[in-house]
Design a protein that fits this description.
single chain; about 240 residues; alpha/beta; 4-stranded mixed β-sheet; 6 helices; 11 strands; about 35% helix
């Protein structure tokens, strides 16, 4: 569900249960859940949100920023970067005779072959490596889970989204953050299944999470990895 107030719009999920008062909760990704007494009026729920509107927006942003957190890396021999959940040290080689900079994962090291020693050149070579491998692996994982869904994605894109690990719109166009390639395959699977479930349920209502749980009963553990380790997924 969505609600707009003071020129801002939030998405939230309502869970009706046996309780006396409305409670507002945010998960580790900044998603908002309203737990309300059974048969609560939606206007009453919206008023409860509006009473804490600014605080909800602030905390939701903080949690989303933290899950996509950042710190400085150095582009020198031995610095480590994540790939499929494991940290690999980089080895930098300057090769003036190569046609194009490239990266190879070999012998538990990320070998970065570049024409000239430069931090931005190294970073861009790594980023291309991540983009290419992310697209390949995500396409394979979508194919793996496709039998669980009637609708096939219209398109699959890898992006540099600063706010989301993945998105799905009403046209069934899926996008994924290239940094996902840094996560373990089971975490990639969670984000893939999460977005594929949006081809059935576009919001985060109870039916959506029930479908996620049907495909991945342990999705909570996979969510937790992103919550605890997502800040490490940087370049």
């Amino acid at each position: 569900m969505t609600h707009t107030y003071l020129d801002s719009t939030i998405d939230f999920n309502v869970v009706y249960e046996r309780r006396k008062n409305i409670g507002i909760y945010l998960d580790v990704y900044g998603y908002i859940e309203v737990r309300a007494p059974k048969n609560s009026d939606m206007n009453h729920i919206q008023k409860a949100l509006e009473k804490q509107w600014e605080l909800i927006l602030l905390k939701s942003k903080e949690m989303k920023d933290r899950s996509l957190g950042n710190y400085e890396k150095v582009y020198e021999h031995g610095e480590t970067f994540l790939y499929l959940g494991k940290s690999y040290p980089i080895v930098i080689s300057c090769m003036s005779d190569i046609e194009k900079d490239f990266v190879v994962l070999e012998n538990d090291k990320l070998h970065i072959n570049i024409k000239q020693q430069d931090d931005d050149v190294i970073r861009q070579a790594l980023k291309r490596f991540y983009y290419q491998n992310c697209k390949s692996i995500i396409e394979k994982r979508i194919k793996h889970y496709q039998s669980e869904f009637k609708v096939k994605p219209r398109s699959i894109k890898i992006t540099d989204d600063k706010k989301n690990w993945g998105t799905c719109n009403s046209k069934y166009e899926l996008t994924f953050n290239w940094k996902l390639i840094m996560a373990p395959i089971e975490v990639i699977d969670y984000v893939v299944v999460h977005e594929m479930c949006h081809t059935v349920h576009l919001n985060h209502d109870r039916s959506f999470w029930r479908l996620v749980g049907k495909v991945l009963p342990d999705y909570g553990q996979r969510q937790n990895w992103l919550a605890l380790s997502g800040w490490k997924m940087i370049l």
